[in-house]
Amino acid sequence: MAKQLPEENISEQHDVVIVGGGPVGLFLGLNLAQKGLDTVVLEAEADINQSPRALMYFPIVLNEFEKFGILDEVVRAGYKNQEGLCFRTTASGSNKVLASIPPGKASQGSIDYGVQLGQPRLAEILRRHAQKYPSFSLQYNTRFVGLEEEHDAVRLETSTPDGKTKYFSARFVVGCDGASSPVRKALGIPFEGYTWHDWRFLAINLRYDFTKYGYPAANHVLDPEDWAVIVRASNVEEGLWRIATGISPDIPVEEIEKHIPAKLERLLPGPRPLQYELVAVNPYWAHERVAKTYRSGRVILCGDAAHVNNPLTALGLTTGLVDVAVLSRLLPQAFTPQHASSWPRLLDKYSTLRRNDFVNQVQKLCLDGKLRLHSTDPKVVAAREDFFNMLNKNPGFGDFVAGTMVEKLPDDLDPSLA
Ligand SMILES: Cc1cc2nc3c(=O)[nH]c(=O)nc-3n(C[C@H](O)[C@H](O)[C@H](O)COP(=O)(O)OP(=O)(O)OC[C@H]3O[C@@H](n4cnc5c(N)ncnc54)[C@H](O)[C@@H]3O)c2cc1C
C-alpha cells in the first residue's frame, strides 16, 4: 500500500512523473511534453531493454505516430506490411495455405498498412523525439520504491544503484512500469486473470529467407505441437524474422536452447541442411490479466502495468500505445481551471474506456487467436473451419475482418461522457 514518506527532501517537482521508460512510458512522455507538460520518465534500468519482444503496429497506432511526425522514420526502420496475414500448416507437414486476411482498406488519406519493427528500435525512435522537447526529461538508474498521495500531489521515493534515495513530487503519476508493476502493487490494485501453463512461450529472432519459399510478411502456422507466428521483424535490408512459438513447460529453461534446432527443422521451409542465423531466443510465460481499475487517486496505469495478454495476436504493445493516445487526450485537461475539481472524471473516463476495450475486445481476440493456432477441442476446430471457409468463399468477409484493423481514434474525447 502507499507508504508514509518523509516531509523533507523533495528534490524535484514536475507536472507528471512517468514510472517506466519502456515504449509506453516513452510514448506518453513524448505526447505530454509536446502538449507542454513538465514530464519526467523514471527508469530503473540503465538503458532500453534490448530483448526480442513486441514488433507489430496496427494503423490505429500508426495514425498516432503520424501526428508526431515519426511515422516515416518508423516505416523506414521497419517493414511496411501491405500483404495482410496468411494462415498455413507447418513446413514439415502439408505446408499448405489455409486462408488469408487481405490488407485493410482505409478511408481516403488514412493508413491502411501495418508496420513490423522490433520494440527496442521503436523505443529508441520515441526517446529521440521526446528528447527534443525541453519539458521532457528521462532519468535512468532511478527505481521507483514507493509513493504517498497528498491533497494536490503525489510524492515518490526512488533509489539508485549506488543506494541513494531521491524524492519526486508531481500532480499526477503514471505507472508504465510493465507487467509486474511496482506502482500497481504499491496501490494494492489486483491484477486479475491467469497465466498460461500449457506452453512456455519462445520469441526467436533469426535471419532466414522465408520469402524465397512463398511466405508473406505475417504467417500464422497451425499445429497442435508446432504452432507458430512467423513474421518479418525488420526492414528487408536487415532481414530479421521472428518466430513466436511454444515449448513444453516441462523442459527446464537451461535446456531450451538445445531443443531449438529440432523446432526450426519442423518450422522452416526450404532445402536441407538448413542455413539460418539464430540471433536471439527469449523464453517467457504468457498471461491474460487486467488491473481491477486503471486509476487510484492521482495515479494512473498504462500499458502492461494495466493489462497483459498472450502475444500471438500482436495486440500487447499496440493496446498499450492506444492507452497512451487516449490518456494524452484527457490528462492535459486535468491541468486546466475548468477541471480544477472535476479531474477525477477525466481519469475515470480513461480507466473505463480503456479497461472496457481490453476486457470486451482485446482479451477475446487474444484468446481466440491463441486457441485457433493449436487447440484440438472440437468446438475450436469447428469455429476455425467456419472462419477459414468464410475467408475463402466470401471476399467481403475478408475485407470486413481487415477493416477492423484500420480504425482510427477520434481526436476529441468528450469528458462529459465520463
Ligand atoms: C518475450 C516477450 C515477447 C513479447 N512479444 C510480443 C509480441 O510479439 N507482440 C506484442 O504485442 N507484445 C509482445 N510482448 C509484450 C510487449 O513486449 C509489451 O506489451 C510491452 O513491452 C509493453 O510495454 P510497456 O512499456 O508497457 O512495458 P515494458 O516494456 O515492460 O516497460 C516497463 C519499464 O518499466 C521499468 N520498470 C519496472 N519497474 C520499475 C521501477 N520500480 N522503477 C522504474 N522503472 C521500472 C522496466 O525496467 C521497463 O523498462 C512480449 C513480451 C515479452 C516479455
Automatic annotation (TrEMBL):
Single GO molecular function: FAD binding
Assigned keywords, A-Z: FAD, Flavoprotein, Oxidoreductase
Needed co-factor(s): FAD
Flavoprotein in keyword set: yes
Superkingdom to which the source organism belongs: Eukaryota
Domain FAD-binding: from-to ranges: 15-356
Key word Lipid biosynthesis present: no
Record InterPro entries: FAD-bd, FAD/NAD-bd_sf, RIFMO-like
Protein name, as recorded: FAD-binding domain-containing protein
Organism of origin: Endocarpon pusillum (strain Z07020 / HMAS-L-300199) (Lichen-forming fungus)
Higher taxonomy: Eukaryota, Fungi, Dikarya, Ascomycota, Pezizomycotina
